[in-house]
Amino acid sequence: MDDSLVETTRQLFDRFSHRDIAELLALCDPDVEFLPVTAMVAAGGEPYRGHDGITRYMADVARVWEELTVEPLEFHRSGDDTVVAVGRVYAWGVGRVIDAPVGWLWRFGPDGRAVYGRVFENRGDALAAGGIEDT
User: Fold this and answer.
1) How many whole angstroms separate alpha carbon 121 and alpha carbon 50?
2) At a CB cut-off of 8 Å and minimum separation 6, what does 29 contact?
3) What's the confidence (pLDDT) of residue 93?
């Protein structure tokens, strides 16, 4: 699939996996909003906002999780600005272990940078949020 937003989504995961904050921020709009599972543990359920929020998110990941690995396995395009990825997340720390299916929804601005991201606890919810029928 030759799709620049899918490729940008893959790069977001790669930059996160390598904990490359500068390159991750380059892929995000300055006003990006991101709501991951870590927000429920470390940020009182509030989304991380802006580049400062993404930087704080990365610090929270390091503080909360001894290990956090994401494995996006499928990428689905929806409309002009949305990509849904589904896969698995592996994490342990703060007395918790997670090994579960997960879905991510990413929306992009006109310049191709991420403006919104959200993590869902299952494939179906992520696909539904992206307006994609789960087959």
Assistant:
1) 23
2) 109, 111, 113, 114, 115
3) 85
